[in-house]
Write a structure and sequence with these properties.
With 250 residues, the chain is an alpha/beta fold. The chain has one domain: Rossmann fold, CATH 3.40.50.300. The protein contains 13 helices and 7 strands. Strands 3-2-4-1-5-6-7 form a 7-stranded parallel β-sheet, sandwiched between helices. The two termini are 22 Å apart.
């Protein structure tokens, strides 16, 4: 008999602030519901003011972000990371709940803060992902703002963050170009796989960082070959079938 865990996919939405993670979680949730596969949704952003989806588990119900800021004398970023660390100490309870709930839910969607350092060096991100992946098929959905990646330096900088997450977490990673309703993502993908195109863009820009960006892009070529890359619009809901297909066929 197939185990509960093997049937369930945990999708962790990671990315810089403003990339559209929360909107995308809501869109994917609605998309799955319309197909008769309502997901189980977690919010791990303690500082979120409003979420457009209904979270089944919400860090804000357990940790008071503003109280943490006041108690420890922290700024906003430090308070978010500390809140995540405090929540992690109880994450075994979350795993127990998920084991029960995934009997009825094929997908678990996890929204995260824009503080990418939660997954590049903070202990909380590492511990949460390890606990999840020990029980469920777990995927990192790294979300990029396509409109902010038009300059080659910005594109490569974002990809370095994705590499850092992959290097630290070591789970299957899907690279998601969001906001393709604003600008297309295909030219950027071509630049990734054809170094000469990105080099031409750098020559056109011609600033002091061009040589470094070109070198970094060359080094990252092997990384690109291993990626699932998908273009979506969280605003319009396009590309969601491709997104879910990317993990069904890993």
């Amino acid at each position: 008999m197939e185990s509960i865990e093997s049937r369930s996919a945990v999708c962790i939405f990671v990315g810089m602030a403003g990339s559209g993670k929360t909107t995308l979680v809501e869109r994917v949730s609605s998309h799955l519901r319309s197909g008769g596969q309502a997901p189980y949704v977690l919010n791990l952003d303690p500082a979120a003011q409003n979420t457009p989806y209904e979270a089944n588990i919400d860090i804000r119900d357990t940790v008071n972000y503003k109280a943490v800021m006041k108690e420890y004398g922290l700024g906003p970023n430090g308070a978010i990371l500390t809140s995540s660390n405090l929540f992690t100490t109880r994450f075994d309870k979350v795993i127990d709940i998920l084991k029960e709930r995934t009997i009825d839910h094929r997908y678990v969607l996890i929204d995260t803060p824009g503080q990418i350092e939660m997954f590049t060096w903070s202990a909380s991100g590492m511990m949460m992902t390890e606990m999840l992946s020990n029980t469920f098929a777990t995927y990192i959905f790294y979300v990029l703002d396509t409109s902010h990646c038009q300059r080659p330096q910005a594109l490569v900088s974002n990809l370095l963050q994705a590499v850092s997450v992959l290097y630290r977490i070591q789970l299957p990673l899907v690279l998601i170009f969001n906001k393709i309703d604003i600008v297309p993502y295909e030219p950027l993908v071509k630049q990734l796989f054809d170094a000469s195109l990105l080099h031409n863009e750098l020559d056109r820009v011609g600033d002091y960082s061009s040589a470094l960006t070109s070198s970094l892009n060359t080094i990252l070529q092997e990384f690109y070959q291993q990626l699932n890359i998908v273009g979506v619009s969280a605003a319009l809901g396009t590309g969601l079938d491709d997104l879910m297909y990317s993990i069904e066929n890993q």
